[in-house]
Amino acid sequence: MQREVASAGGAPASDADPVPRRRFSGRVLLPAAALAVMLAAIFVLQPRAMSYNGMRLLLGFSLPLMFAAMAQMCVIAASDIDLGLGTYIGLVNSLSALLLADRPLLGVLSLVGCVLAYAGMGAFIEARRLPSIVVTLGASFVWLGLALLVLPTPGGASPAWLSALVRLKPPLVPLSIVVAVLLALVGHWLFMRSSYGVVLRGIGSTPQAVRRAGWSLLTARTVLYGLAGVFGLIAGLVLTGLNTTGDANFGAPYTLLSISAVIVGGGEFFGGIVAPVGAVIGAFIMLLTGSLLSFMDVSTDWQLSVQGAILILVLGTRAFRRRRA
Amino acid sequence: SVGHADGTGVATGDTSGKKIALSNSYAGNSWRQQMLKTWDRATADAIKDKVIKAAKVVNANASAPEQANHIESLIVEGWDAIVINAASPTALNGVIQEACDQHIVVVVFDGLATAPCAYKVAYDYTAMGKMEADFAIKKLGGKGNVLEVRGIAGVSVDDDIHKGLVDTFATAPGIKVVGSVYGNWTQTIAQKEVASVLPSLPPVNMVVTQGGDGWGTFQAFKAAGRPTPTIVFGNRQDELKLWSDLLKADPGYDTFSASSAPGCASVAFWVAQQVLAGKKVPNTIYLPLPRIEQADLESWLKVMPDGAVATPVYSQAWTADLIDANAAGKPLPPSPVAKLGDM
Amino acid sequence: MSGATDSLVVLGGIAKQFGAVRALAGVDLTILPGEVLAVVGHNGAGKSTLMQVLIGTLAPDTGSIAVAGRDETAGYDVRRAHALGIRCVFQELSLCPNLRVFENVRILHHGLMGFGWPRRARRLVRAALDEIFPGHGIDADAVVGDLSIGQRQMVEIARAFTVTDQPVRLVILDEPTSSLGARAAEQLLRFTRRAAGRGISCIFISHRLREVLEHTDRVVVMRDGQVVARDRAADLTEALLVERMGVMADAAHAASTRANGAGADLPVRVDIQPTAGGTIRLIARAGEVVGLAGLDGHGQRDTLLQAFAAPRGGGPGARVDGSVAYVSGDRPREGVFPLWSIGRNVTIGLLRRLSRGGFLSPQAESATADEWRLRVKVRTPDMNNPILSLSGGNQQKVLIARAFACGADILLLDDPMRGVDVGTKQELFEDIRAEADAGKCVLLYTTETQELQHCDRVYVFYRGAITEEIARAALTEDRVLRASFGQTDDTGQHSGGRADAA
Amino acid sequence: MNRRWLDANPWVWSLIGAVLVWGLTVASVEGRGGMETLSTALGFATFYVIVGIGQMLVISAGPGNIDLSIPSVMMLSGYLSMGVMHAQDAGLVLGVLVALGVGLGAGIANVVLIRGLNIPPMIATLAAGFVMQSMTIAYSRGSTAKPAPLLLQFSLARVLGVPVIALLFLAVAGVVAFVLARSSFGRSVLAIGQNARAAYLAGVRIPRTMAAVYLVSSVLASVAGLLLAAYSGGASLNMAEDFLLMSIAVVVLGGTAISGGQATVAGVWSASLFLYLIVTMLNVLGVGAGLRYVITGLIIIGVLAVSKSRPA
Ligand SMILES: Nc1ncnc2c1ncn2[C@@H]1O[C@H](COP(=O)(O)OP(=O)(O)OP(=O)(O)O)[C@@H](O)[C@H]1O
Ligand SMILES: Nc1ncnc2c1ncn2[C@@H]1O[C@H](COP(=O)(O)OP(=O)(O)OP(=O)(O)O)[C@@H](O)[C@H]1O
Ligand SMILES: [Mg+2]
Ligand SMILES: [Mg+2]
Questions:
Q1: Nearest CB to B186: which of D141, D145, D241?
Q2: Each residue of B28-37: pLDDT tens digit?
Q3: Which residue from B minimizes the CA distance to A167?
Q4: Measured distance CA(D256)–CA(D262) in Å, rounded
């Protein structure tokens, strides 16, 4: 009401101002607050976590998840959804463990091929106007199959440089946090600040308007999926470094985890509404759910319930806030 | 602080202040549920007897990344030993190494991990495949059609069993493996997959399974109206019950059950405890595969509640014997027989 | 084709066929530099289709396009059109609601990139808004989805006039005023004059003939996919124009009034306290057409929605007695079911009435659809055609038919005539009056003062409250306008419920 | 079969696919067991169909609506119903009631989370599914999980080689198709799916319709759980594992728009048959695990691509 009145006729411009501003920050503030609460709970339950080493360990596996979340966010920006991201990460994991150390050239070529395939999938979805959910579901089988073909049983080895890279111990702040900050900045710049990022988010809400302005939807969706392919690739590589080996089945859980991370972080399934900073925070939330479970000493029977409850709590609070706003 | 001067027997070092945790990759099937039960029983008794101070379980939802995260949390919490049923043979190696670096005792079992610093409690699954194949060759007189029900694609247990089967069948040219499907160790999926190939198959004389899939396989044959072949069963209660029913209808229904026992969790627990107590333990400890013959069938069924998985409960002493046998390269001690209330 | 050298755009023999529908049947059109050209015609005449061809989003079946004396027919598309300085504000809004205002500007300008582009985009759109719609109150950082439909229309228009690396030579405005308030519409029309003075041509499409006559240089009349007349605006009158359009109605002069003299004894159907309070409640009785006036976004729509929600357990402060039906002028967002046929779009409003034994009877359904096709004159051979095959105005007729057909006691009309041509509008208002005479209660929100003449009483809204109630007899444009800015006229304030017009 | 007819009946493509795959399978074994293969496929496809119909209703109610709790509902319903039956015919009625009760309860939980707490359906149903999975795990310890003999017989019964449950759910599919096309409820679902705001203003009762859609989905999932547990001779913890992705795949491959507002019931049947027959074909041809996945994925994408009428 207030908004309508303020915006009409001769009302001063400043009246309409606070509404969008507040809504924007709310999108990232809530997951940030949720993360803070979780961390507080963890520190209370387990004071040892409150050290460089504790944080380093707790957040060790956040690296692949935050890149996976960023990849998923690229797809969700187009109001699509990627059910194949997890197995794609598994494929990258398998290929890099098998080839990168021994035959680097072939390894790099195959990984470039992966990214191209991802971009091609985006182009295909746009060109034929296909529902992404089913194409990526089909693709998930293809990635898994390819991974099993190249690496029928877990094995291979991470190149030494890669393992060393992901186990870097920068002074003062653990690597995960450094990378998270950088990734959030890159993601924010890419989607919220860069000039083409505007177009990329635009196709998620009103593709025909973007097309009428002379943009190629084919290019835009190809770029988005290509970006998803790149972030997914990094997730897979980081995984190889952390695990030191490859496993075709390893990536699969990242599909649901990454979707949850994006949504918990303030993104929405439809309308090109994404929050790159939130996605990184969401990745941490999803990750720490597991640690919290471990520290809370819940009966094994009910561990899944607690996970569900945490999801409901975070998203329920957001919906509640939005309704009151 | 070792039982005998030569280092054999139960190590008696003081572990009453130690804490041992289990990181389990998946809890969603009856085998794993039985496993958690035996773990609970073993640790509860050990805590009551002041052998250890605390124990706990964290389950990952069939997700290796989640499990890796759990293990890192356990490291932060400062557990003295972490027992792991791993979601991937390789993917947890990084965190396991991390745990070892913090001087935490790591024992992996069932779902193994290849990290060199971890103690491994292992079944020889290739031997299980060989055992089944040998039985089939003998039973069929070297000639006949066999259907293979495999586990989950890309998982090493499945590969090992399959390898044992293939290598052994290669020595018997009269045996034809007419079909091979993935049953995912799940009755419904095994049923679906077997049913899908059945119409196209010639008469099947024998089915070799990996456990957890025997009942589903039987259902598929029944639904297709085919005569029941000889099925090598796993050790779920429904499979053993089915075998017993089949025996009642046809006393000549000759087969056996081979599968890993969920009780191996208790072996892994005692291995961890023994390492903490100062016993010298080889890096890999093989466990005898419990094999149930027709003669023992009814006595097993008697002590198994519905929905259980056949398993002995292994004691500290038995585990010490097992360690010693492995260390000395001697024959493994036979699996104890289950008692009422064990499952 | 005349004046090919000094004309800006020359369209020659443009034809376009959609299945069996001949949308354009060989149209020739010339646009001169610095002129404001009006294109008028009945709903479905082909105006929007022609503009889509001109902006390059739709390829014609045959025909040629020349811009600034050069033939551009081959490879003509939106990008080329933009490069040539042709812009379009489409009939259905074309902004991305998830993006901010300045980001939507960036979408239009491919060259707006590099360091500091947001600053430049903000400055561009602010300048354009300030120039076209002084006092607009729109923040360049606002998320478009949070803006009202009128504000969004302003943003889209302002965006079309912004200049970066590409020139602006021609701006097409497809029914821009239908979603703007009266004041903003006036501002826009005055601006197009000034723009023309700077050499920027405008094509202006509207069903409001007065606007057309007062503010344009030349008028092109389309009928059934063809241009049937080209005149200088100065040579035309409303009557003449209506005649050329081939619609038979004596325009807005004959605003019909209540036929029966029913009075205060009729039951009160709606009694609402507007959200922002105030001393005047909105009261409407059976048999009345009550107008809601004021500038766009001052609480009229909220009041209608309040009335709509009330019988279904809505909030306090609202008493509504009877069943309600709602017609929105925001077709794509609030009216149309895009996957369905025209017929189904009508019958969704009256499912219960068409059911026999719990299930819909196909005969009854198609009979109803056909009945309403004739009653509101939907231009289609077959009600089984998809709704999206209709022109904007015809879609709007379908929505009105839906509300009429459901037989509700109370009709809530939210700018119901948006995009409807004059002839049809006249007929629809007669239908509305007939419904009221039959005992219905009608609430009509419109920003077009002319349409208020069809109301028995008018409530003027300002800042969420009612500032004045005006009887039909006392209704003047001036008075409505003053009340719209919160200045009340003492004499008419408490005229007590009903007015004795006629 | 002109193009327009094909556009209106997208299920034809997966039916053609099913026939091709079946032909290829039978040809590869010199025509052995063609009819049995079909009969088996009908039996298994039925389970996909049961949950697919529910998922289809949910999906057609608009963008973002997807029920991810289906496998968990199946599991819980299978376990609890088998548990109270105790393999006795006397417990049959109670068992069926318990299954339906699980479906209703799960449906209500989903509705409360989605409409009451405003949580996006995908996350809400996922979370509800987690909780139900926990409940099943907690309950399953030491429980009986075998069906009543009558139910077992019913689930396996055939008439002229056609499974009775397949016939039953052919009829159910017919009823659902009729309801969607010709009832106030069906029209309401499709209207909400196309444009929720317009539906609200057209007087469609959104809360009650959406609640009904999620309830139907959960109840159908619980029925599927009951029948699947019976068909496989007992409930097991992971019996519904592949139903999450399959329930979505059969709906969309069958021609239902993922963006809502349009539903194709026949497509659920043809896509279910198609997907099961692909499994059959790959098993019969003895294709290795890796290649099997690749082929399955490519076939799914391929059928989707040809069945979509209008390329850009
Ligand atoms: N995509 C389409 N498919 C089929 N028919 C169409 C399509 N677009 C337009 N038409 C038809 O073309 C004709 C011209 O439509 P157009 O939208 O150009 O009319 P208009 O003059 O803009 O009408 P209005 O004043 O109502 O906006 C109409 O009969 C319409 O039904
Ligand atoms: N703009 C809208 N878009 C979508 N849904 C809406 C919209 N406005 C309201 N609704 C839905 O309608 C509900 C409020 O409507 P209301 O309570 O009047 O329905 P109702 O007729 O009482 O329904 P029922 O009697 O069937 O429960 C809201 O909770 C919301 O779910
Ligand atoms: Mg138009
Ligand atoms: Mg209500």
A1: D241
A2: 788 888 899 8
A3: B94
A4: 6
* Higher pLDDT, residue A66 or A311: A66
- Do the beta carbons of residue A198 and residue C99 sit within 8 Å? yes
Which positions in chain A touch C79 (Cβ < 8 Å)?
Answer: 214
Question: Residues C76, C56: contact at Cβ < 8 Å?
Answer: yes
The model's confidence at residue A16, banded by pLDDT at 50, 70 and 90, is: very low
A179 CB near a chain D CB, below 8 Å? no
In a mutational test of the C interface, the residue from A206, A208, A210 whose CB has the highest number of chain C CBs within 10 Å is A206
Binned at pLDDT 50, 70 and 90, residue C294 comes out as confident
| Nearest protein CA to atom 11 of ligand 2, as residue | D206
Kindly report the length of chain C. Answer: 502
Q: How far is the CA of D197 from the centre of ligand 2 (A)?
A: 9
Strands (E), chain D: 158-159, 162-163
Q: Please check whether residue C282 is in contact with residue C442, taking contact to mean a CB–CB distance below 8 angstroms.
A: no
**pTM of this prediction?**
0.87
Token pair for B272: 């961890």
Q: In angstroms, how far is CA D42 from the centroid of its own chain?
A: 14
pLDDT mean over C242-246: 79
> Is the C-alpha dihedral spanning A13, A14, A18, A19 positive or negative?
negative
Contact indicator for C55, C34 with CB cutoff of 8 Å: no
Distance set, CA D136 to CA A305, B41, B321, D93 (Å):
11, 21, 38, 21
- Supply B20's token pair: 């041992």
Of residues C330, C380, C391, the one with CA closest to residue C372:
C380
Task: Report the C-alpha gap between A179 and A280 in whole angstroms.
Answer: 10
Distance C314 CA to ligand 4 centre (A): 8
Burial of C422 (0-12, 13-18, 19+ CB in 10 A): buried
Question: Which CATH fold topology does D3-308 show?
Answer: ABC transporter involved in vitamin B12 uptake, BtuC (1.10.3470)
Q: Report which bound ligand comes closest to the CA of C40.
A: 1
DSSP conformational letter for C272: E
Domain limits, chain D? 3-308
Cβ–ligand 1 distance for C424 under 6 Å, the answer no
Closest C-alpha residue for ligand 2 atom 18: C312
Task: Give this complex's ipTM.
Answer: 0.85
pLDDT of residue D225: 95
Query: Which residue's alpha carbon is at the smallest distance from atom 8 of ligand 1?
Result: C389
- Nearest residue of D to residue C336, measured between CA atoms: D198
The residues with which B291 forms a beta bridge, in sequence order, are: B258
Nearest to C326 among D187, D195, D201 (CB): D201
Backbone angles phi, psi at C381, to 5 degrees: -75, -25
**A134 shares contact with chain D (CB less than 8 Å):** yes
Q: Is D208 in the pocket of ligand 2 (CB under 6 A)?
A: yes
| Selection from C400, C398, C424 nearest residue C327 by Cα | C400
Q: C352 near C364, Cβ under 8 Å?
A: no
Residue located via tokens 């037989």: C407
Ligand 1, atom 24: nearest CA belongs to which residue? C43
| A95 CA: distance to closest CA in chain D (Å) | 14
Distance CA C206, CA A94 (A): 63
Query: DSSP state, C470?
Result: E
3-state secondary structure D84-97: HHCCCHHHHHHHHH
Kindly report the backbone phi and psi dihedral angles of residue C462, in degrees, each rounded to the nearest multiple of 5, phi listed first. Answer: -150, 125
pLDDT tens digits, B95-123? 999 999 999 999 999 988 989 999 999 99
D282 and A CB contact within 8 Å: no
Cα angle for residues C389, A221, A85 (degrees, 5° grid): 120
DSSP symbols for A119-170: HHHHHHHHHHT--HHHHHHHHHHHHHHHHHHH-SSSB----HHHHHHHT---
Q: What confidence tens digit (pLDDT) does each residue in B310-322 have?
A: 888 899 999 999 9
